[in-house]
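Hi all, long-time lurker, first post. I run a small reading group and we've been trying to get comfortable going from sequence to structure in the token notation. Rather than ask abstract questions, I figured I'd post a concrete chain and ask someone more experienced to write out its structure so we can walk through it together at our next meeting. Sequence below, copied exactly:
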Amino acid sequence: MHRFLLFVLLALTLSGCARPGPASLVEVERPKGAKIVTILVASDRVPANDRFHSFTAGRSDRLRYSEVTISIPPDHRPPQIEWPQGRPDPRHSFAVVGRRDLTTAEFVHTARRITQTSASGATAGLFVHGFNYTYQEALFRLAQMAADTGVQGPPILFDWPSQGEVTGYVADRDSAAFARDDLVTVLSDLSGGGVKTTMLAHSMGAWLAVEAVRQLSLMGRKDVIRSVDQLVLAAPDIDIDLLKRQLAVTERLRKPIVILASKDDIALALSKRLAGSAATAGSLDVDDPRTRELALKENLDIVDISKLPTLNGSSHDRFAALAAVYPHLRQGFDNPVAGTGAIVLNSVGSAISAPFRLGGSLLAQ
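-- Answer (accepted) --
Happy to help. Here is the structure in token form:
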């Protein structure tokens, strides 16, 4: 009964509005002069038998690749997703305006071509979504972040078979484990094609991302690990003790692992209660001496994003708001608090304090 009540509370917290269905993916005519985001998708979900090219929560026996072009409405307000009400209208909502299936070789070639034609040193941004995501939610969230960030490099979605249900927590854990080999495959293929990646992994997807890097380490694939330019864990739903054990056998990345943490993350608090965990990585307190010790030992940069706006009241989605201020954050490293082991951001993404310094470069360019 205790667990049931926790799930009910979480459902009430996260489900304040109707969730978008597969019809939001219907392809419409591309408007002239619209802002366009093109996303590469690698998914191990089972395709739905519909005209929207959507996916189910089923676990597929193979990866499927595609390229999806999304139009951003002119009145878009970061970090919102303007979901269509009925048939998508590019004048007022996010809308799919192009789509094509890709082979593995085409997927890698397209990613390489975009990085080569972008600014020097551009990397592909690989987003690994978290618990309780449908395909369309993950796709449009990445489109929102890509549009708001405006950085160079192709956005890539690794879409694993989340149930897309609040009550699917345990099933999602199994699905994340199921997807681990496929994420390793995607990273290996991109590396073999000369594509460097910056991975942003949210919630349960953070566990999946760390597990993939850990597996590559155990396989001796240092070449692939070197192609991961940076790993950013947003509100990671990972038990602290488990994270330590994962990192103990993981090759150290070129740059520190960045953790975006919020002490008031309701979803992680509930996850911690359900799992009987002492602490999760996504709710680290930057003022706690134990956090400093962890950052020193494990080569972590911890960003307290507790003051950034939350979209649904759970404080578990603040990473989406960070996208809009990310360029400002990266350009502002002549700030005295730059290059620290932990920083605290204010509501507009400016660094306002540095609880401790470890050297290195936070979110280094």
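A couple of things your group might point at:
Residues 294 and 300 are 8 Å apart (CA to CA).
The chain is about 35% helix and 20% strand.
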